[in-house]
Structure formats: structure tokens, C-alpha cells
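G., before I forget:
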Amino acid sequence: MFSMPGTTCSDSTCYQLMQKGRLSTTKERLPLKHFTTNTDQCGSEILAEAENHEVKVKHKVTESSKMRCPVFYICFLLCLCLGLACVFCVCLWFNRWNGGFAWDGSELQFNWHPVLMVSGLVVVYGIGAVVYRIPLTWRQNKLPWKLLHAALMLLALILSIIGLQAVFYVHNAKGIPPLYSLHSWVGIAATALFATQWAVGMAGFLLPCSPMSLRKLLKPVHVWLGGSILLLSTAACISGINEKLFFSLKGNTTGSQPYSQLPPEALFANSLGVLIIAFSMVVLKILSNQQWQHPDSRPEDTAYTPLFQEEN
Amino acid sequence: MFSMPGTTCSDSTCYQLMQKGRLSTTKERLPLKHFTTNTDQCGSEILAEAENHEVKVKHKVTESSKMRCPVFYICFLLCLCLGLACVFCVCLWFNRWNGGFAWDGSELQFNWHPVLMVSGLVVVYGIGAVVYRIPLTWRQNKLPWKLLHAALMLLALILSIIGLQAVFYVHNAKGIPPLYSLHSWVGIAATALFATQWAVGMAGFLLPCSPMSLRKLLKPVHVWLGGSILLLSTAACISGINEKLFFSLKGNTTGSQPYSQLPPEALFANSLGVLIIAFSMVVLKILSNQQWQHPDSRPEDTAYTPLFQEEN
């Protein structure tokens, strides 16, 4: 027997099932259409059928978990590897072909811009978005994982802001007008949206005083904006790499091969773009798979657990 | 009483409920934990409680539909308006500031490239992706909507391929190497992925001989790649507009204002980029909302309806 919280559980089968905690822990809901309930059928028969179904559900959940978790962890590992590869490649590109890094208003200060934007707005942001989906965390207290999610997002935001500061500083020092290219419009929009998302997310999901109704309202918007920021940041990075290569590899003025001849720098930076796209696709894979959503966030779960009410 | 397809329905209440088709049409599943079933409680009591709960569910479904549908249709209308605005603006940009259109290997033939790529790979693609989510279609035969989805995607693919052909033709005529920029890599990857997605989707979801197990396996990959193609096509368009403006608005060579001074053309084309981003975000909003998914595509729906088995 499966009972609703607050109702009594009066027979031993119920007790055994409750003790085993099969359904309460997995939060599995049994669709009623799987049961026949007519006026000649008493509770004991229904119970037997329910138990039979429950065994099938347990089998399904176990099978599903067997199938699901390794694929999740492969995707998560791929996400981490691609993220590290992105950061490594963007650092190598500006260190090897563009003179390294400094903070003095020169071209070398500009080099911090792509490194910090790719690291913050793409890599740390993407990892921060998927960390909350790790199945291992589903049975644990949500708070530490929410805090980790918020902390990673804050780190990503700080890196992005410093990255923007680097380019504003250089533009200012060289008298170049700021924010004229479409790349800069998309990049600034991504960072502004991200800052808003972080502040609203913090107030809505972490402050104990925020009402449950607000959280329920915010949740789908938070998920949608999360994906949108990834879209914007990827578009900003791709257009930024493209723009930088057209600026750097003019061929005739610098003596180096032009971009159209695909010299080693161009090939390397284009490959960095491919890595960023691959990273974003893996993040999107994890975010789009509804089977990997935290059980409390699934649409069929009508109950919403406020952070500081049930868990702490 | 709510019965499983294939089981008998033996009392009048069941019959009335089935006749009203409340649950079978909405495919609403009642979580079992909302019911108390103990050995002292017979079917009639359970039935009364189930009916009571069903009334609440119906109320919830009605309330939910009231809330949900207008928001969906607002988003859908916004999607159509933004899509039309994107097509209008990209045509106007190349007609007013770049000499119009031709198919003769000149710059005028190049102008078809952005028009066809924005129209095909972004606008028609995005509308094709969300058309299957229209709630009005949920109670109807799925086949015409699947065919419309496939037809719009085919149109999008044809437009994109002609758009690519335009730029390859011009590059060939002018001796410019093809496929060197990151923009071109991302654009070609988006189109190749889209062509593969269309062919596999066609074979997997529309051919009557494709097994149900294959469809179940394909579905999450199809959804994920659908979102990924949108990500790639948006990134390709943003980087393409950015690149085109840097090429066209050099200032010193053409006598026109440089891009950095944001002349009217630059402001207009940047705004087109913002429209494309807004369009993609609205498409993402519709795709990411699980409440707007076709009921047969929701993860909690364990039954999978093959196209040519139950419907036709």
C-alpha cells in the first residue's frame, strides 16, 4: 500500500513497503490507469496488484538507473574535459601567438579578455549549470549543491566582469569606441542577463524569506534564461574569435599569412571555436535530458520543496 | 474509476467518466499516493475518493490550461513576428546598403547568402521546431502535424543549401578560398548536422518500417540535436553579420563611416542580430517548457505511439 503523507497506514504490507522506502525515496508516482478498481474489488486485491506493479516499477527504476547514470557521468566527464581543453587552448593561443598577458592598457591586457570570457561565461558557467543535475546528489540535502551552483555561477560572473573590464580598459587607453560591434552587443547582453539571473536566482531560491509561490513562478524562467545565456555566450565567443582572427591575420600589413590561408594560429583558434561549440552542446545535452533533472524540479512533481523549509 | 486500456470497465461511474473522457483525453495520470488503500476499504470508497480527486485534477487541468495556453500563443505569435522581422530586416539591409540581389557570381549574388541563411537556418527552422508544440494540435491526429514539421524543416534545409551555394559560387568566381573562417566552419557544421537530423528524423519517425525501440532511442537525441542546431545557426548568423560589417565598413577605403562609428547600416545590421537573438530565445522558451510538450513526448508517458500503428 502507498499512502499519502498524513494518512494512516494500517496493514503490514504497507508497513513493509514504507519501511523499504521504495517509493518515498525515489519519489516514484504510480499512474492510476495501471490499476483496475471496480466495486467488486476490495482493498486487498488492489493492494496485491499495486504491489505487483510496484515491483515492476522498482525493476524499471533500477533498469533505468543502470542505463542512465553511466551515460550521465560520461557526458559530465566529457563536459569537464572539453571545458579544460577550452581554457587550455585559449590561454595557449594568446600566450604563443599574441605575446602573453599583462594589465597595462596594452594589447597584452586585451589578451585577458578572451581568456576570462571563455573561462567564465562559457566553461565555469556551463559546469555550474550542470553540477546540480548529478544523480548522486538527488538523495542528499539540496542546500550544499544549491550553494555550489550559486558559487560557481558567482565565480563565472566575476571572471566575465573582469574580462569585460580588460577590454574596456584597452579600448579607453587606445581611444577605440566601446560597444560598437555586434559581438560586443551580444557579449554585454549575455553578461547583463547573467548578472540579473544570478541576483534574481539568489533572492528567489536561496533567501529564506522568498515565498514558495514566487519560487514556482521563477523556476521555468530561471531554466529558460539559463539556456539563453549559454546561447548568447557561445554566439559571443564564436563571433569574438572570428573577429580577432580577421584583425590579427591581415597578411599584407603584418607579413604573416592572412586568415584566408589558414595559418597555424587560425587553424588553432578555429579549433578552439569547435571545442566551445562541442562544450556547449554537451551542456545542452545534460540540461535537455528530462531524465537527468533533479526529481524535485520535474514538471510531474506538483510538490515544491522550499529550500529552508523542509531541508534545513 | 479509471481503467487501463485493455481492462474492463464495470460500473456506471467508470462509464460516465470514460464517456466524459476527462482523463483519457488529457492523458492525465493520477499519482497513487493521493489515495488511501487499506484492507478495510472497498472499491466503492476508493471510487468515491478517486472521483473526488479526479474533479480536483480536472479543475487543475482546466486552471493549468487557462494559464498555459494564452502564454503559449503569446510566445508563438511573438516567435512569428520576430521571425518575419528578421527576414524583412535582412532583405532590407542587403537591398538598401549592398545593391540588391542577383545570381551572376558578383557581390550581388553573395547577398542571397545572409538572406537565405537567416530565413532558412534560423526563422523557418525555428518555426518548424515549435509548430509541433501547439496545444490545439494535441487532440488531433499527429500525422499532419508531423508532416508539417518535416515539410517546414525540409524547406529550411533547402533554403540553407541554396544560401551556401550562393557563397561558394561567389568565392569560386573571385578566387577566395572557401571555408576558412570560424563563421564558415560553424555554419557548415550547422547545415550538415541539420541535414543529418532531417534524414534520420524522416527515417526514424515517418517511415512505417522503423521499429518502436529505435524511435524511443532516437527521440531524446532528436530533441537535443534540434536545440544544438539552433545554437549553431544563431552563432553562425551573429558571427556572419559581425564579419560582413567589418568587411563592408572599413571607412578609409570606401569613404563611408567605419563600423566603429556605428553608421546607420551598422546600427541596422546590429539590430538584426538582436532580433535573431530574441527570436532564438523565444524558440528556446517554447522548446524548454515541458508543460508545452506534446503529451506523447513527455518523459512520464511510458507508452510510445508509433506513427503508422495507432493513428493511421
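Residues 43-96 of chain B form the longest helix (54 residues). Chain B touches chain A through 80 residues (CB under 8 Å).

More on Monday.
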